[in-house]
Design brief:
The chain has 411 residues and is an alpha+beta fold. The chain has eight helices and 18 strands. The N terminus and C terminus are likely disordered. The strands form three sheets. Strands 5-8-17-10-11-12-13 form a seven-stranded antiparallel sheet, with no helix packed on it. It has a seven-stranded antiparallel sheet with strand order 6-7-18-9-14-15-16, with no helix packed on it.
Length: 411
């Protein structure tokens, strides 16, 4: 059940104002997740979990909140509904392809039947004309044997010879159409335009499907953050798929790195690969790929500032594609879930808004070595923890969740 934060009763769910006042004492001067941090509700507007730290920072004010348990049930129902709809759509597509396939075969069989009948009729006509020729020749022989008036005899012979000449000419033409010079190869000529048109129509269907398929997520891979290749200001949780950066009291008293980067464990040198990253919990981030060895001097730098990295960067919501400090602004777009597609064989990197499927940018380049997924988080001089999450694109038999103490300021 969804409730407005201004209308939530104290018995079921406290209002944001009361949450703010009650949670102030729980928040220390550091924004690093604390065991005292606890989840409170689910924000319908932002589609994320609300913690007491979020509330104390003034987030989700006047937003619509839901009970966590009810929100989880609603999400589960939504997933099941979408799954049923996708299955129904694929079944409909399969039925259409099957129908088109059967109709194409029926048309092909009809053309084959027509050709077969034409060949049979041609053979029958040939036999009939052969019989007619033999009949004419027999009549000529009979006329020659008669002893009647010579003039009349010559006239009848002349008439039969003319008929014989016409039949021979016709039969000769027909034989040229049926039998080649070597008496083996048949070369019956027929109009195959209908068959070619049918073949072309099927080829167009295949081509259209190739343009749509495969989708990038057909090449989904499971990736994880690498503890050995991360900046010291970053923390990794839950099967190495959640990355957090917070500003501790110690870090606030000294100059912290502006950017902190981390690479994935996995690397790719051939084939096509795709992964998604939840970036909505971070104000300024950079996501992309780097070549092998990039981490040696660059973990305190963002991606895209050198020849060995390609990235999409968001700085306070403004998207920019970067490589070797060459930038390309992406106007009018923002994303909360980023899809990254890499084709190693063609040295191509694509970035998608995973929620809408819209292509944001493409890099055409030349990889010199294996590439690694890589991620950067900017220190915005605020006390809120920044978070990047590698999205799970494969189902797991057992779900695992962050403890409240690890989740911290998840929003």
């Amino acid at each position: 059940m969804s409730v407005n934060s201004a209308q939530t009763s104290s018995s079921s769910q406290p209002s944001l104002s009361s949450l703010q006042s009650s949670s102030v004492d729980l928040i220390s001067s550091s924004s690093v997740p604390s065991p005292l941090t606890r989840t409170i509700a689910f924000c319908e507007n932002c589609r994320e979990i609300v913690t007491d730290t979020c509330v104390s920072a003034g987030k989700h004010r006047n937003h619509k909140l839901s009970d966590l348990h009810e929100a989880a049930i609603e999400q589960s129902d939504t997933y099941e509904s979408v799954k049923e709809n996708i299955t129904a759509l694929y079944n409909e597509l399969w039925d259409l392809l099957q129908q088109n396939h059967q109709q194409a075969l029926r048309l092909l069989d009809a053309e084959k039947d027509t050709l077969h009948k034409s060949l049979i009729q041609l053979d029958v006509d040939g036999d009939n004309h052969q019989e007619r020729l033999m009949d004419i020749q027999g009549k000529i022989e009979q006329v020659e044997m008669q002893t009647a008036d010579p003039e009349k005899l010559l006239g009848e012979i002349k008439g039969q010879l003319e008929s014989l000449e016409v039949m021979e000419k016709f039969y000769s033409t027909m034989k040229e159409q049926v039998i080649s010079d070597n008496n083996v190869e048949r070369k019956v000529k027929f109009n195959d335009m209908r068959l070619r048109a049918l073949e072309d129509s099927v080829r167009k269907i295949v081509q259209k499907n190739k343009e749509l398929l495969p989708q990038p997520w057909d090449f989904s891979v499971a990736i994880t953050f690498d503890e050995r290749k991360k900046h010291k200001d970053l923390r990794i949780f839950e099967d190495e798929t959640i990355l957090l950066r917070g500003t501790s009291a110690r870090q606030m008293n000294k100059r912290a790195a502006l950017w902190s980067s981390v690479m994935a464990v996995q690397s790719f040198s051939e084939g096509q690969h795709y992964w998604e990253v939840e970036v909505g919990g971070c104000r300024s981030w950079s996501v992309g790929v780097v070549e092998q060895g990039w981490e040696k001097n660059n973990l305190d730098h963002p991606l895209g500032r050198d020849k060995a990295s390609w990235a999409l960067e968001s700085d306070e919501g403004d998207l920019t594609a970067l490589h070797n400090d060459d930038l390309s602004g992406i106007r009018g777009h923002s994303t909360h879930r980023l899809g990254v597609y890499v084709d190693c064989d063609k040295s191509k990197v694509k970035f998608y808004d995973a929620n809408s499927g819209q292509l944001l940018h493409v890099f055409f380049t030349k990889f010199r070595s294996a590439v690694y997924p890589a991620f950067s988080i900017k220190n915005n001089d605020c006390r809120n923890t920044s978070k990047l999450i590698i999205c799970k694109l494969f189902p797991k038999s057992k779900n695992t969740y962050l403890e409240d103490s690890d989740f911290g300021n998840a929003s």
